């Protein structure tokens, strides 16, 4: 792990980050999108055969397959998934908002309504990155928002199957339809609709470069969530932090992916040293050692700072996806956090608690985008619509003013649409 | 204006829409973005010379220029702009939301904070499409959100100037910095920052195809609002509607742009006939006749329906930017509206009232995207950040469950970050 110090390194040196390589797959993805758009289901079967080497007999996952998935999961795990669901629902229900209205005595009514999206697509990656926890995190806020149709897509294994835990999580979360289709072709199906797969209003969920590129390309014809990059954590630790726990949390991040980034910012030289030792020790015992080690060596950083104010300044510059405050008085620092997807306060709040269980969403802005993006929430599954009503009396008071404004912009037709309503005494519709 | 009837046309025929032509300017835009990213200000001067044929002496609009702009506007217009500002502020203040927190007796605290974006860029197009009303609509929600730095960019005229009304609106709305730069180069400057122009967190505002393409390309490195397409209105009119007023409102939409779309959906054959006559008459007197006429002829539609239920079904399918309900009991229909940016209720609420003055935002989802997008609002200028705290007692109760969930996903490092905290009796940090 590279070690920096604000005494001896510039902020620029400290912040420098290897950007994740993005190969340009837009030509391939563009062809796939077009193919699905024009040929529908038949393109989906063909692409799944060509790309995933699977000959599907049906796109949709059957009720039997889902039931079989459910019953192959241990009761203990089902109970935990169920409890996680309850916690996630409880947290996200607090995000629900009401519309508003304002009225006045002149006969003026205006307001804003909040309406659920009609249909949402959830992409779930295949292989080892198929996480039932992500199914819960992506689906449950949509359920709370009142989305009527939630469609899940996920690539099949070479045997044409979907992991049991994914099916179980989908069933528990309340997914309405599941399809065995992945990659850019799945995004195309959700964006355009096919004979079998319904067109949706928004597509959420992480995926590989083909999925991300496809999402970016269909953005505007359909809404998308953020484009997820490699995951990251920044841990701020003071003298009282436990180096073993800090190391464990850094490794939990690093085991995701060689591109994942684990950063420690500490005021304590002792922590710098002891965390490095703990990392070496714990790495030995980690099943995903190879991945974690490469992530730590390539992207990991330990930054020694003068004080916690400096630590927070750095954290705000980096805008981490996850920010752990392993300090004596974590709540003292919360108000200083400007840019972070999710904040974990104190020694007993490891990120994993939030990844799986506590309630806040784990779909969070990565690669410094916490500067402007937010955790996935109920807000992502609703839209707003404003409304306006003026009585004749209310309109007559402002007609000239609005007409003047419109004329100043050279839009006489706009002005005329105001004044014409005051001209015609035979037509009194008040 | 083409006339359809649900008696004799299929929904598909009725809904068919000429999609707006999108020329592919991505290669040009890509080059411009790269140029500004690497060469900063000097690229901005060069590109403005090459593209806008203006040799600027400074990028930033001076205080003197802004004052001169203010004093060249009539007092009457200033008063109206000021009143519009008050109305817009009053409406948008109702969108402000608070964070939340939940606690429990085991020592568990979690919540969500709402934080303003630090810096926002507002693009204002040049030429005849430079609308002071849009400055108000794009800037004021950001002010309410608490954005500290609002930067406006707009292309200079060949004399190197910015329209007085734009400068006045910017001053009244509270823009912090104004720069004479337009096109893709302006978007690049806001996305990457230059020596003079600060990098922002989000770029809003309409623009031509170069601007829209640049926004799409920088999306992710910076947030953007929706990509605005041609404006549209859908008017639902029953027997009691005033054909002259309906025609005036259709023309107000049509005068924007030949690509603008004005649609009338009515239950009354009389309205169909009389609106057509009124359109012809009113077109004669319209200064922007040529534009409006082409828009009406190419994109305009009159659709005769059996009843209001059918009218609303069509409206929801079309998902208009503006929906006028020129019917006897407009509030009866409001709850049936699923997809519309902004709804104008009754005979005395022309769209122009909302475009300029009443309070709701006029930056609205176009081209059917009201299915999933919302009017610009205070929400667009804040981000959310969640936080989580568990006491030792609270953590100990769930450690095994969370570890089990993590292990089921093959993430032992995550599981270990939970269990390690229960292992070490010497380190009691509770």
UniProtKB/TrEMBL annotation, chains A, B:
Name the catalytic site residues.
321 (proton acceptor), 322 (proton acceptor)
Recorded catalytic reaction(s): these are:
L-histidinol + 2 NAD(+) + H2O = L-histidine + 2 NADH + 3 H(+)
The record's annotation in InterPro entries points to: Ald_DH/histidinol_DH, Histidinol_DH_CS, Histidinol_DH_monofunct, Hstdl_DH
A single GO BP: L-histidine biosynthetic process
Which cofactors are named for this entry? Answer: Zn(2+)
Q: Which GO terms describe its molecular function?
A: histidinol dehydrogenase activity; NAD binding; zinc ion binding
- State a GO cellular component annotated for this protein: cytosol
Positions of substrate binding: 231, 253, 256, 322, 355, 409, 414
- Entry's EC annotation: 1.1.1.23
Task: Please tell me where Zn(2+) binds in this chain.
Answer: 253, 256, 355, 414
Recorded hits in Pfam families, A to Z, give: Histidinol_dh
Q: In which pathway does it act?
A: Amino-acid biosynthesis; L-histidine biosynthesis; L-histidine from 5-phospho-alpha-D-ribose 1-diphosphate: step 9/9
* Keywords carried by this UniProt record: Amino-acid biosynthesis, Histidine biosynthesis, Metal-binding, NAD, Oxidoreductase, Zinc
Residues annotated to bind NAD(+): 123, 185, 208
Entry's cofactor comment:
Binds 1 zinc ion per subunit.
Top-level taxonomic group: Bacteria
Q: Which Gene3D superfamilies match?
A: 1.20.5.1300, Nitrogenase molybdenum iron protein domain
Cross-referenced HAMAP family: HisD (MF_01024)
UniProt record similarity statement: Belongs to the histidinol dehydrogenase family.
Q: What does this protein do?
A: Catalyzes the sequential NAD-dependent oxidations of L-histidinol to L-histidinaldehyde and then to L-histidine.
The protein in question is named Histidinol dehydrogenase
The species is Enterococcus florum
Q: What is the lineage of its organism?
A: Bacteria, Bacillati, Bacillota, Bacilli, Lactobacillales
